[in-house]
Amino acid sequence: MRTPPKDRESDLDRAPKWEPRYAGSDRLKDKVAIVTGGDSGIGRAVAVLFAREGADIAIVYKSNKADAEETASLVGAEGRTAILVRADVGKTSAGRTIVDKVVSKLKRIDVLVNNAGEQHPADDIRDISPEQLQRTFATNIFGMFYLVQAALPHLKKGAAIINCTSVTMYQGSGGLLDYSATKGAITAFTRSLSENLIEKGIRVNAVAPGPIWTPLNPRGGAPAEKVESFGETTPMKRPGEPNEVAPSFLFLACDDSSYISGQVLHPNGGTVVNG
Fold this sequence. Notes:
Residues 31-226 form the Ketoreductase domain. InterPro entries: KR_dom, NAD(P)-bd_dom_sf, Sc_DH/Rdtase_CS, SDR_fam. It is a single chain. By secondary structure, the protein is α/β, with parallel strands linked by helices. Helices cover 39% and strands 12% of the residues. The chain has one domain (23-265): Rossmann fold (3-Layer(aba) Sandwich), CATH 3.40.50.720. The chain has helices spanning 41-52, 65-77, 94-106, 130-151, 168-171, 177-197, 216-219, 224-228, 242-253, and strands at residues 32-36, 56-61, 82-86, 111-114, 160-164, 203-207, 264-265.
């Protein structure tokens, strides 16, 4: 009998480490950030770190309200405001729904973190149904288009967009064909959107995590044996933690990276890739 998917962070055999590892220094003071997929994993770590640095957070989640509420309470514990926005980012109307609520409640948008994603392992390309293929692209890349389109009128000079791509874009992944293809699209989107928006003073960058211990892999249906050895093929011989990835997003969101756009950071356990 197949083990039920572990949908919540608390369901995992070992809790991911989301806690910021240092005191804040107001690098995002009084800014407003949207974090898609902010209920758990990398999104949770980013939301809490941004809050520690002074930002109010819009946590966008698809269905896991319990994890989203937990993340909101963690943001509140940092002394900042969190709002929850339930939305399926892959739907064409989601971008407008998210932006309208954020602007209504928090009045502005300074940082957009496109982090939401899904994956469904398949060793044979013939096992990827048209429905799965379309769904993976809708969530992972179409949703970024929809949200940027909706947010752009509210993004002013100095705003930042950070997209989550993956090491699989650079290495490939025989068992994640559709997922890896979307990550290649995200990297191209990041570079092209940077060229498109740079004259408006809006910077666009990306983060390409390696194997990070989050609910994404067990939730996506990865076999138990692969989950057990997850991350061991990296030079560091272990998976990363969400709080080892979140600082890359913070760097790209704040003025520390004011001369950087169209680039990708690689928190991946020491794997050397080009680009």
